[in-house]
């Protein structure tokens, strides 16, 4: 092991699995040292911050047609977001 990693997490998402609104922030600070049983001395900081905004409400408010398309392949995944009349129903 040789270290410890305390963390701070703030989560105001409305759903853990399918959030539509809210904020998720996580910060981790890893401290590693021979004094803690490791071979090397170093520190590691990792910060993740995500703000969820429901795009469909913004699109509806301004009358924008939009859609999402996912394409999966053995080596790559593509995400396409289409804004405009191409997604509109006739």
Describe the protein.
- By secondary structure, the protein is mainly beta.
- It folds into two domains: 53 residues, no CATH class; 36 residues.
- It has one helix and six strands.
- The longest helix is centred in the middle third of the chain and has 8 residues.
- The radius of gyration is 21 Å and the shape is elongated.
- The model has no long low-confidence stretch (mean pLDDT 82).
Q: Note the total helix count.
A: 1
Helix-strand pattern: EEEEHEE
Number of domains: 2
Low-confidence stretches: none
Rg, Cα atoms, Å: 21 Å
Helix content: under 10%
The percent range for strand residues is over 45%
Give a quick precis of the structure.
This protein has 90 residues and is mainly beta. It has one helix at residues 55-62, and strands at residues 3-4, 7-11, 22-32, 42-52, 66-72, 77-83. A hairpin with a 4-residue loop joins strand 5 (66-72) and strand 6.
Give a quick set of tags describing it.
90 residues; mainly beta; 2 domains; four-stranded antiparallel sheet
Write the layout of secondary structure elements.
Blueprint: E1 3-4, E2 7-11, E3 22-32, E4 42-52, H1 55-62, E5 66-72, E6 77-83
């Amino acid at each position: 092991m040789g270290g410890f990693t305390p963390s701070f997490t703030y989560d105001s998402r409305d759903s853990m699995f399918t959030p539509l609104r809210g904020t998720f922030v996580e910060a981790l600070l890893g401290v590693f040292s021979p004094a803690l049983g490791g071979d090397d001395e170093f520190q590691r900081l990792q910060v993740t911050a995500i703000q969820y905004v429901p795009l469909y409400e913004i699109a509806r408010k301004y009358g924008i047609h939009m859609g999402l398309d996912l394409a999966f392949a053995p080596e790559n995944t593509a995400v396409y977001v289409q804004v405009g009349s191409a997604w509109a129903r006739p």
